[in-house]
Design goal:
Ribonuclease Rh, Chain A; four-stranded antiparallel β-sheet
Length: 234
């Protein structure tokens, strides 16, 4: 009897450890990062994308549905970390200063990210080139350093209870799921983006200048009635 009780207790411990591991694997702060990952090179922005004098009126935290990106781009060399080494749900595409018409962009030169900043943020945004692009294009228009910019993005992401979109049949149901989990978030503060065939691509969470939930300046994307196609996680 005592041996059976010990076996049952060990089984309970193992189950708990398994559940903890699963929760950590699903967390935006847990992923597999290759040892040889390196910062992406800095690139000069296209002339037409430099808007250094445009005032910031709001902010967007852009959450991209990784399985859809991987469905389209998973075979590309630069997608190995996101699409083959890991299985992500929503990732942070970026934190964007927004404007009344256009947001500011590429406000100053941005050298390559230092390795420590890169590795600290790869589980949030699993692409060295995307991290470099987001800092150069958007972060330079509101933060003094890449570390500060990504720290703010991490804090905002940690403050959102992001639902699994797999059960949402419409854009409205996905909005309902976000609203149910996040008090203070409003329906007009979520911009749901879809691609060809109404495949879910992004959800943009809108904030005012003090990073409080706010109405989206650029609309809310797909209407509630739109039937979503959600690419499943592998």
């Amino acid at each position: 009897m005592r041996a059976a009780a010990i076996i049952r207790a060990l089984g309970s411990v193992l189950l708990a450890l398994t559940l903890v591991g699963a929760a950590q694997a699903a967390s935006p702060e847990a992923c597999m990062i290759p040892r040889d990952v390196r910062p992406a090179p800095a690139k000069a922005p296209p002339r037409g994308e430099v808007r250094r004098d445009t005032p910031t009126a709001a902010y967007l935290l852009v959450l991209a549905w990784s399985p859809e990106f991987c469905r389209v781009h998973g075979g590309e060399a630069g997608a190995a970390l996101q699409c083959r080494a890991n299985s992500f749900g929503f990732i942070v595409h970026g934190l964007w200063p927004d404007g009344r018409a256009w947001g500011p962009s590429s406000c100053r030169d941005a050298p390559p990210l230092d390795p420590a900043t890169l590795r600290a943020n790869l589980c949030m945004t699993p692409s060295p080139s995307l991290l470099q692009h987001e800092w150069a294009t958007h972060g330079t228009c509101g933060w003094n350093s890449a570390a500060d910019y990504f720290a703010k993005a991490r804090a905002l992401r940690a403050g959102i209870d992001v639902p699994d979109p797999a059960g949402a049949q419409t854009a409205g149901q996905l909005r309902d799921a976000f609203l149910a989990r996040n008090p203070g978030l409003t329906r007009d503060g979520l911009d749901v983006r879809v691609g060809k065939g109404n495949r879910l691509t992004e959800v943009r969470v809108c904030y005012d200048l003090k990073f409080r939930y706010a109405r989206c300046l650029d609309g809310t994307g797909a209407p509630d009635r739109v039937a979503l196609r959600v690419t499943p996680r592998r």
